[in-house]
Amino acid sequence: IKDFQDNLKTYSKTNRAGSVGVIGSDNEVNQTLFSTVFGVGNRIKTTEEVTEDDLASINNKSSEVEKLSDDFRSKNMNAFLSVSGYENQLKDATRGMIMGVKNITEYSTDTLMFGNYHALKGTKDNLAERNILLGFNYDNVNPEEHATNPTKGQEDVAMSVKDTIGIGSDVKLGADRTIAIGKGANAKGVESISIGTENLAGGEQAIAVGYKNIVKATHSGAFGDPNFIGTDASNTTGTYAFGNNNGTELKPIVTNHTF
Q1: Which of 194, 226, 214 is nearest to 254 (CA)?
Q2: In this structure, what DSSP letter does residue 55 have?
């Protein structure tokens, strides 16, 4: 043990070869460079095998690591990751900080994920990029089914989203450049914002702030609780509601450019 300790002190100061630190138990880290893993049962994998020559060729370019992100993606490697917690699962990920319990991210880059039961996924040709997920989600899946259905939040975040922020419990992000903050906040439309409890900002550039507001119109907003603007079938746009009980679930406001 002392020899190992002495060697670690000596080589970790100047030599980046190896470049992966793993502390804990039952962690599995494959085809990964420039990363750290702390905890129990974490998994970092890739969908395609990487040769030892590929790993060595990039690992030996440690002085140029900031320029290598494209190389990692093209070779299906994981890199620049910090993972801490219990049974987090990463696959084909670069530049991410994942902390918590049973979080999942695949084909992603530039990810900040703290809490539990988050799921963020992209595809090989369309990565999930620059996303922030913070919060503690409720898991209603039987633990025996976690292998095939690991979290309640599997579909809470849309595939391959970019530039989103989700803060709270059970938030939903349905498109690029969305913000959802609060319990059950749902930002579904492109560039929409949902802040509060169980609000839905469903239209493009819609905003819902307060409690159980439903905004399915575009370029529209509701502030208070609860207000209803637009339907899935209507083309409502430019309408805003302030206060309480404007429109109902059965008869929402569908007129355009209304305050």
Answers
A1: 214
A2: H
Q: Hey, is 123 helix, strand or coil?
A: strand
**What's at 159, amino acid-wise?**
M
Q: pLDDT tens for residues 90-119?
A: 999 999 999 999 999 999 999 999 998 899
Residue 36 makes CB contacts below 8 A (sequence gap 6+) with: 20, 21, 22, 81, 82, 83
The SS3 assignment for 96 reads strand
- 69, 75, 80, 82 alpha-carbon torsion, rounded to 10°: 150
* Token pair in block for residue 32: 């990964």
| Burial (0-12, 13-18, 19+ Cβ within 10 Å), 214 | buried
Tell me how long the chain is.
Answer: 259
CA distance between the termini of the chain = 72
Both structure tokens of 74: 């093209």
Exposed e or buried b per residue across 58-88, where buried means at least 16 C-beta atoms within 10 angstroms of its C-beta: bbeeeeebeebeebbbebbbbbbbebbbebb
**Quick one: pLDDT band at residue 52, thresholds 50, 70, 90?**
low
Residue-wise pLDDT for 31-41, tens only, equals 888 899 999 99
Start-end of H helices in the chain: 2-12, 52-59, 69-74
| Structure-token pair, residue 185 | 């906040």
Q: How far apart are CA 64 and CA 150, in angstroms?
A: 37
Is residue 182 within 8 A of residue 196, CB to CB? The reply is: yes
Give how far Cα 51 sits from Cα of 6, 37, 58, 123, Å.
30, 22, 11, 22
